[in-house]
Structure formats: C-alpha cells, structure tokens
C-alpha cells in the first residue's frame, strides 16, 4: 500500500529527501521520548523558474522550487525547519491549520519578529494531528509570489485502505518577475474613494491596498495547464487525492469525468465519506478525496471558476494500457451534485459540547463596493477590534457577509466546528478555513484552548492585505 505515493510529487519535491538532514534523538527541550526530529533546511530565495510551458520568470521560492519541498512526517514527530532568508525583504513561515504553540505560528509582528534578509529562524513544533496542511509565507504578498508548499502528516496507524496517493496543489500564477499583484505597478495617486465608513483613520494613497491581479496561469504542483503531470492508475486501484488550495485569490470547482469523488477529510480532519460530482475548494482549504479506478479510459480531473469557464485546470487521469489519445473531461452542469459543508458529518463523535456557547461574537464582513478596503465590523486591520476570549471558553463566531464576494475565513492555532442546526453538535465537522458566501450568515465554534495571539482573517490574500483580519486575544489569567 502507498508505494506510489510520491510518484507524482517527485517532480516538484524530488529534493525533499535530500533536505531531510537528520533523524536523531530528541533534545532536552522535548519531554516525550521516542519522538523523532525531522529537520528540514529551507532557503527563501528568488529563482528563475519555468512552469513547464510559457516563459521563464523570477518567482519567490523555497530552495529554488515551486511549490516548496513537500514536508511529510508521521504524527507525533517533531518538525524542525531552519529557515534562511535570502530574499530582499523580511519573511516568515506560517504552518496553516496546525494548532501549534503561538511563537511558532509565523505571523510577523503578531507571533514573531519578521526574519530579516540574511537572518535565520528555526521553527520547531510537534506534527499533530494527522492530515493535509500547507506551509506558506505570511509576509505581505509572498504567498502569491510562490512561497508555499505541502505539509503532510501521516497517521500513526493507517485506517484508510488505498493503493495510490497523490498530493495536488492548485495554484494561481502571475507569470512575471516578482509575481502576484506586486508585479502590477501601483496605480497613480488619485482622489480617495468613499464608502469607508467606520474606519478610524485615513490611509494615505500610497498605502492603498493593491487589487487582485489578473492571473495568467493556473498550475498543479508548479506545472501549467498543458504540462500538468498525469495521475496514472491501474484498473481496480483505490486512489486517494490530497487536494490543497494555496492560491492567493482563486477558488476551484473540481470534477472527475467518469468517476465519483468521495470526500473523506476536510482540512485534514476525517468525516463520514460523502460522494460528490463537484467539489468546491476555497483558498486555504484542503480536501482528501478518494475514487475507485473502475472505468478504464483517459479522463480529466478538471477545475472551473465562476466566470472563467471550464478547464482552467485539467489533470489527466490515465489508466495504464489505454491507447486512446483524446481525454474525456467532465461537463459542468447547473444541476450537478455539489457537496456542501452541511452535507458533511464528523467521523467521530465529539461528546464534549453542550449548548449554548460561553461567548458569541459577530463578524460582519464588508467591502469591495466603492472601496479598496475589506473590513470586519467596519474596521480595517490592524485597527480591527481584537476577539477577546478567556482560556477554556467555547467561542461562537457568527459571520455575516455583507459583500458580494466569498470570504474563506481562517483561524490560526485552532480548529473550529461549523455550526449545523440540522444535526447534533457532536457531529459538526472540524475545519480551520470556512468559505462565507455573499449575503450568507454562518457560524463556527472553537474552544479557546491554545493561549496566545492568533490571527483570524480572510484567506483571499488581497482581502487580508486590504484589512480583513483581526487577532484573537486571550485574557491574562
Ligand atoms: Cu475575503
């Protein structure tokens, strides 16, 4: 089982094994014995890359590759990453989804001093829980310039049965030197627009946030459309896909022609398996899905985005021994079965929730109309009010999206449960990123069990940079 799990990622992470420097006994700082330290050395550096088609350009990379090397460890291991900053500006690494100790969370000026050019910083934390995660820079626009990679924590004992496993990062690219919106020249100074009521201070025009870029390439594991490596299966294989969206401003609707995808994990956490024809994956989200290779042929796992049409990403799924040259893609229809958060139930029973929560906090998400800023409760980060909690409290965040854009809201340092009135609370699913759709109200609950200062923000990078963020503060006890 799983012998082929690296067969796809090897193209982008072939040096990961080489980076794996040592496996040694834990040092004195680690209280548990028998924990293995897995040490990785990352150098953040600008590198000329080619995503398999199109022109070369300068991306911001870890170790000269996009995406960054795969980190793959076992639950309970100690992950140690020695980050060397060879970029021309500060940087940090955030370990998206992992509830780790606050000083390791990698948010500049919230959990750590940014790592200056030429400096080194060591991240170290326990790999827990098992699941599919992302690591990425949390500094300015570096996420959109290429600084991200997959982080896979394998369970101590495998409970799933599958024959092949692929990790697929779905990426949006601006194929220009520097990349992202940083590649777009700042607009000339002009009169301030209205619509920023409730803001506490005026921003000089030079600090106006950058708009989302127009992406000119979508890639899977650093390979553009025509160069995407195929998934190769044998008839009868049970195939596990780890679908990861590190894109800065793109969500994807995925469908696999000729097969049904079954969702097994949301943001790394197990759910009762749910079949779906289409899967939506927002920025920062991860879904593990399975399919049974029971329909020989040449197929496409394709993605579309509203407004962009079909086929922005096409991943070939080829059965061995099939000669047909033309691949068959999915046909997106309005009436396709699209699995929704509310269709999912947690695989285990919680047994730890009573209602109501200790504290409820409203989060009104606005912006985008006549304004360059995106707000929470009418405020722009860092002027946003803190989310004040006490250790041990069960906190409910009630989102109301008063804008015309979806916002994938992400909470650092904790998982939250998505409130689903139709099922008992002990079946609510556990996630760390939740898409709040236009004009939707939806709530999550988390237990304040990891003291520190934790960022909470929209994972559309350009919404976050334009103000849609705040910080969870634990009261001093
Ligand atoms: Cu947003």
Tag the structure with descriptive keywords.
477 residues, mainly beta, Immunoglobulin-like, 3 helices, 39% strand, globular, disordered N terminus, binds copper (II) ion
Overview of the structural elements:
The chain has 477 residues and is mainly beta. It folds into three domains: 10-158, Immunoglobulin-like (Sandwich); 217-339, Immunoglobulin-like (Sandwich); 359-474, Sandwich (Immunoglobulin-like). It contains three helices and 32 strands. It has helices spanning 10-13, 16-19, 461-465; strands spanning 23-24, 37-49, 57-62, 71-74, 78-85, 94-96, 120-126, 131-136, 148-154, 164-173, 217-220, 223-224, 231-233, 238-244, 252-256, 261-266, 269-276, 279-281, 286-292, 298-305, 309-319, 359-367, 374-376, 387-389, 394-401, 407-411, 416-418, 430-431, 433-436, 441-447, 453-458, 469-474. Strands 12-11-10-14-19-16-17 form a seven-stranded mixed beta sheet, with no helix packed on it. A hairpin with a 6-residue loop joins strand 22 (359-367) and strand 23 (374-376). Mean pLDDT is 87; it is low at 1-31 and 185-204. The structure holds copper (II) ion.
In short:
The chain is mostly beta strands and 477 residues long. 3% of the residues lie in helices and 39% in strands.
List the helices and strands and how they pair.
Blueprint: H1 10-13, H2 16-19, E1 23-24, E2 37-49, E3 57-62, E4 71-74, E5 78-85, E6 94-96, E7 120-126, E8 131-136, E9 148-154, E10 164-173, E11 217-220, E12 223-224, E13 231-233, E14 238-244, E15 252-256, E16 261-266, E17 269-276, E18 279-281, E19 286-292, E20 298-305, E21 309-319, E22 359-367, E23 374-376, E24 387-389, E25 394-401, E26 407-411, E27 416-418, E28 430-431, E29 433-436, E30 441-447, E31 453-458, H3 461-465, E32 469-474
The structure holds copper (II) ion.
The site of copper (II) ion has 7 residues, from loops.
